[in-house]
Every structure is written in C-alpha cells, then in structure tokens.
C-alpha cells in the first residue's frame, strides 16, 4: 500500500474511529508515532545497551579479580581502556539503560493505556524524542572507535580532567561523550513534556487526578523533577564543551572554578536518583496490590510524600562534594537535608509493607522481583545514611563502600524493577504468558548472586579500597591476599549472576514461540491497561473507556469477584 | 474571513475524552519547557556569580566596559515587541479584522529583529575592543549568557514567523499562537533580569 493512500485511509478512520489501515513495516515499527511502539523502541534500545554495559562490567571485574589474565571475549585490559570502560559503564547504565527503560519506555507504554486515551498529546514530538535518543546512542558507541579511544574521565566528568586534552588524553572521546549525553537529555526533555501534558489533559472520562494509578503519578512527578533539575546540567555541559573546544576558562583553576561543575552536575545528578526511583516505586505499588489482592495503603499519602521527595531531592546535591573543599557549615546543612529525605521514602516503604499486611499474597515472578526490590533497596538506602553524614563521608568518600551503596540502590531499581516490569507487562505486550518455574529460578539465582557481588565490596570499602584504580599492587595495604579474595568473590558472584540470566532468555524465547495465551487481564488487575486487548491494537480501544472508581478496589466486601476494574459499570 | 479560522484536528491528533484542560496542550507543553529554560538560565547566572565571587576584580581592569546606554535602549525595544505581541493576541481574541492582527504581529517581529541586530552590532564592537570568550572569564560569561539569550530570541522569532505565515495563509491553529506567545514572553521577560545582572551589577 502506498503512503498516500495510507494517509487518506487514516484521515477517513479518524472520523469513524473504527480501525486504522494496515501500514508498512517501516511506518508501523520504525517511524511509528504510536506510543506503544515508541515505548518498545526505547525499551529494546535500553536492553541492548544493558547488554553492552554489563559486558563492560564483566571485563573490568575479570581484570580486578586477576590483573594479568587474558579475559575471555576481550583480551588483556590496558589502563586507558579500563578507564574508558568504567566511565562508559556508569554513563550507559544511568543514561542509556535506566532512563530509557524505567522512565521513557515504561512511561510511553503505560501512561496512555493507564489513563484511557489512545496516544500521547504530541505523538510526533514523541517520535522525534526517540530518534534523538537513538542518535545519541549511536554517537556514544562511535566514541569507542574515535582516535584516542572513548572518554575515560569517570561518568561524573569532573574538570580539569575532562576539560583538557593534556589530562584526559582522549581528544575526540571527551567531546563525543559530552554531545551524546546532551542529545540524550534533549530526547528525555521532549518525552517528559509529553508525559506531563498527557497525564494532565488526556485522562479518560470520569478519571479525576486521584483516580490515576500511582504509577502515573510517580512518572509525572519523576518527570517534573527531571525537567526542573536538568537545566543546570545542560548549562554545565555547554560550558564544559566550550572549555574543551574553544579554550574558555569556565572550569579552569585560573579564572574559573572547577568545583562549579560539581555543583551543576550534582544539582542534576542527585535528583536523577529519584527520577529513577519513583517510577519503580510506582510499579511496585501496582504489583503488590495486584498480587496481594488488597487496596493500596495510603494512596494520597504516597502521592503527597512523593511530592515531598521531589522538593527535598533538589536540596541535597552537595553531599557528593563533602571532600571537594566546601565549607563545613554548608556540609552539615546538606547532611541534614540528606538524612531528612529518607523520611518520606521510608513513609512510602512502610505504606507498601502495610499493603502487604494480611493480604492473600501470591509469589509469582513480578511479585518476587517487587519484594526483592523493597528488601534490597532498603539495604542500599540504609547504607546511604552513613554516606550522608559529612563526618563519616570524609573516610568513605570514593571507596568501594560508595560503589556498593549505589549499586545496592540502582541494581534493585534497574534490574529488579526492570524484571518486575518485564514479567508483569510481558503478557500485555506480547499476549503470551511467561513460564513461572523458569521465572522463579531466574529470580532466586540472580537475587542471591547479586548480594554476593556487593556485600564483599562493602567490606573492601570499609578497609579503605579506593574505586577507579587499575592496579592495586602499588598500594601495600590494599594488595593483600585478604583484599584480593574479596575482589575475586565479587567477580565470581558476577559470573554466577550472568549465568542465571540464561533461564530468563530461554523463558522469553520459549514464551514468544509457544507461551500460553494471556487474554486481556491475566493478573485480574483493575487498572485500564488490562481492559485493552493483549497486545493492544493501534488506538488501544475500539471505544474509549469511562472510569467509575479508583484503581485499587481489590477484595471489596460483598462483591463476588475480588477485583473491580476501573471502567466496570456499577 | 478565512484567515482567522481554526483548522479541524488533523488525523494524527490523538483521540481522547474531550476534557477541558486548564490550558491547551501546546501551551502547557511550552510552559514546562519554559520552566526548564528558567532553570537553565538560573544556572548560568549563578555560575557567573560563583566565579565572580572569587575574582579579584569584576570586570577585569584591562577589559572593555559594556555599552549600558545602547543596551538600555535595546531593552525598551524588546519590551515594546512583547507589548506588540500582546496586542496581536488581543486582536485575535476579540476577533478583530485579520489585517489588525497581522499588523501587530509584523511590529512584534520587526522590533524583535531590531533587538537582535543591535545586539550583534554591539558584539562586533566589543570584540574589536578585545572582549572575547577567551580573553577572560568575564568575557566567557558575557558571551555565554547573552549569546544563549540571543539564540532563544532567534528561535522565538522563527516561531513568530511561522505563526505569522500560517495566520496569513489561514492554517493557524490557535493553540500554536498561544504557545509561541508564551515562548516570546519568556524571551522578553528574561531580558531585563539579564540586563540588570550582567550589565548593571
């Protein structure tokens, strides 16, 4: 079918709303404006980059376990390559895995389905957003082929190391890295504007703000935090780019201020943690309600405390800079705000636990990943209280204790949360059920191995092991056999965790080929996305749903069924 | 009266419940974008004050002074342009004849272009006197902040030109007009702050 007749048919269908004309492969899957396809494009790109990022961590962990070894699938790791792998592992995992999967992919797929409209308010802006993101992905990977190699100045890119070629020795890599990050941010900005506007203006008939599922609230609040914090990072990136290319002195020690970059970077960088956290908490809220058949405990409390998290997240950033030479009086203020922000997050955690209390809990794979997320994230959060204290941080700063801490927050969010999303929404996206037994093996193997990677690193950090060091043989107190055994243990656990992804891959392939059909609502959930077909067609519903009640009416006394879909008439 | 009609929704506009939003989609999207831009400029300004706070003298003794008077006049030109756009919007709202609206729009664009042109001429003079991005961090911040504003002004003028063109050809969707208006007000409203903080202080 030619494109002109497709347009004519589309225009006609817009009147009747009956169905859309069949489209070619390119217009349906590559240049689509459909929010579901764009969401999947983001997610699949994110999964691809996750494989790249995990491969990098595999290479440098193998190197740390045995510095002289020939690493299978890589070779011998040089110091410069070590730096660029560590740098790009961090960058990729935050900006090209967590953001596209947790925020862009999930938000694009779920928001219109959950609030009952058929697309984002600016569908073509949405498509542009993915195209810019894709370009940034290609650009970042091209950095590895540039002369001098990819940027190796750590994902935080502190000047003067990042600003001067004489220091970082990657004449092209640093500029490419910075441009890729900037493009990626532009992409999410466009997507974010879409998310918030859609949630405000496109809700289904009868859906009030407090009838939206908590997941939508969380994505909206996360997006607002992102948009309010990203401006300073862009400003810093422009200044750094000018320092690199035009030879200005914004961040030079003479005439400029190197710590200024740290302020601009972390003003974005810390809220970013909450940008990644909130959508995950939203998903967990949805999943634990469905799998314990109980209403969410304290819906409005959760929403209000989330706003509190958002506001507080803007005034904690300098806790990353306690040893950067900031005034100790300022440091104690930031210590205080850092410790205060754990209160609203704890409120949300307790609300989740209260939701589980006396529920009829089913430990299916999505539920396991969600509970795993709560447990492991708590460990990460509690270790954060030590780091937030400015006195203790003087010792802990830049050790493996920090590495273990933020991996204990981010891996539960990105991996556990990502798998929770994957297993929960797989039936909706593909129309097929996943195998439950393989899912259980995958969860338990990965979760246990994960703890064995990072608990040793807490100990080695306590013993004073610094991060970003290629070769420990120059440090007598760190090159001991005891310290080496901790490093080796973490590497072995990583290999075990990687091996436990095999059941997951088998599970996905098997289910895609011959999984049991899922039907529209396999989990017996209330929210609107489960009233559409699986997979939802272009346009989502033949007739737009009308909402009569809140999203968490589970086990209502006096009703035959223990769930009550939002759109069911009374 | 063909030029003031509003287009029917094209087919790519999503189907949804006809909810009366607080503001139209395009305006809301633009407002979030502007909020983000405000944070961007706030960061640039505070960065300048951080560096300035540790500088021995500001501006450095060997650097040229900024043209206060010309730029002050230019400030009035830009504000006048904002007023013209407000008059254009009022003319659309009160469904005055399309000629009236077009005339105010043209004025807004002329004055905006005049502002950018005078800024550019001042830059040429400053460069001749030795103020460049590399000459000092004073120069770096001056060209960065004022240049970023100029970039926004040029983009906003492009938006106004688009609005003007589609208004003249009768294909204007009003929500786009309001969105462009929000962006131009941002460019106009930001400038007095920059004038005070960068030029006067």
In words, what does this structure look like?
By secondary structure, chain A is an all-alpha fold. Chain A is 65% helix and 0% strand. Chain A contains 18 helices and no strands. Chain A starts with a helix and ends in a 56-residue tail after the last helix. The N terminus of chain A is likely disordered. Chain B has a single domain, classed as Four Helix Bundle (Hemerythrin (Met), subunit A), CATH 1.20.120.80. Chain B starts with 24 loop residues before the first helix and ends with a helix. In chain B, 34% of the residues are buried. Classes of the chains: A mainly alpha (570), B mainly alpha (201). At the A-B interface, helix 1, helix 5, helix 7, helix 8 and helix 9 of A face helix 1 and helix 4 of B.
Give the helices and strands, then pairings.
The complex is a heterodimer of chains A (570) and B (201).
Chain A: H1 3-16, H2 25-30, H3 35-65, H4 79-115, H5 123-142, H6 165-168, H7 173-201, H8 214-245, H9 258-292, H10 299-313, H11 328-340, H12 342-356, H13 365-388, H14 390-396, H15 400-430, H16 436-462, H17 481-499, H18 502-514
Chain B: H1 25-54, H2 68-93, H3 98-128, H4 137-168, H5 174-200
Helix pairs in contact in B: 1-4, 1-5, 2-3, 2-5, 3-4, 4-5
Per DSSP, what share of the residues of chain B sits in E-state strands of 2 or more residues? under 5%
How large is the share of residues in beta strands of chain A? under 5%
What is the averaged pLDDT score of chain B?
A: 90
Fill in the CATH topology of chain B: Four Helix Bundle (Hemerythrin (Met), subunit A)
Number of helices of chain A: 18
Uncertain residue segments of chain B: 1-11
Q: CATH homologous superfamily name of chain B?
A: Cytochrome c oxidase, subunit III, four-helix bundle
Task: Find the count of extended strands of chain B (DSSP E, 2+ residues).
Answer: 0
Shape of chain B: elongated
Helix content of chain B: over 70%
Briefly, what CATH class of chain B?
A: Mainly Alpha
Counting H and I runs of at least 4 residues, what is the number of helices of chain B?
Answer: 5
SSE order of chain A: HHHHHHHHHHHHHHHHHH
Structural class of chain A: mainly alpha
Supply the number of structural domains of chain B. 1
